[in-house]
Design goal:
Elements (H helix, E strand, L loop, with lengths): L1 H24 L4 H25 L11 E10 L10 E9 L5 E11 L2 H15 L4 E6 L3 E3 L15 E3 L6 E6 L13
Helix pairs in contact: 1-2
Length: 186
């Protein structure tokens, strides 16, 4: 990976040198030359961030609604470190039959106490040999006891919207797949 970064940096420097050479040799105004150099430099930044997403760095995109958990890492912030705490999930999406599909993907979620507790419990279950599936819910609904007291005329419990829009991840043991019987040896 270090050699890839080195080659990418050399390519950026070469293109910048070519743009600078062409700009100096042209009769364009100084504004056009500076604008060209700024545009090329901004393309370097966008290419760099695009390259990071291609190489498997964790994404901040939403987790799939249903997924197979391959690994979880909790990265808590240290006192000296200024980077935010995160929880990393390495997962594969599940198809309609409940089977993993596609390539594994790393997801990064901001650390919260609830997500950390759920992740720690899942890590312990996986250490015990369980295979886990996960389901994401957006916690958009809460019951009457969690929000303002609303009830209809019959006295039934009402459901109101939860405004914090946090996610909840529920982990369950994956169902065991039974293999078909083997044909008798001939």
């Amino acid at each position: 990976m270090t050699s890839a970064i080195l080659w990418l940096t050399l390519a950026y420097v070469t293109v910048a040198a070519l743009v600078l050479t062409v700009s100096l040799a042209n009769l364009y105004s100084l504004r056009v030359k500076v604008a060209l150099i700024c545009v090329v430099s901004s393309l370097y930044a966008s290419a760099w961030f695009g390259w990071q997403t291609i190489t498997g760095w964790p994404t901040s995109q939403p987790l799939p609604e249903n997924f197979r958990v391959l690994s979880i890492t909790i990265d808590e912030r240290r006192k000296k470190d200024k980077t935010p705490s995160s929880i990393y999930y390495w997962v594969r999406a599940l198809d309609s039959a409940g089977l993993p599909t596609g390539k594994p993907r790393a997801f990064r979620k901001p650390w919260s106490e609830r997500l950390a507790e759920e992740a720690e419990q899942a890590i312990a279950e996986m250490a015990g040999g369980d295979t886990l599936n996960g389901t994401v819910s957006r916690s958009l609904l809460s019951t009457e006891s969690e929000s303002s007291p609303l009830s209809d005329y019959a006295g039934e419990r009402s459901i109101t919207g939860n405004t914090d829009n946090t996610i909840t991840i529920e982990f369950k043991q994956a169902p065991r797949r039974l293999l078909p019987p083997k044909a008798p040896a001939s």
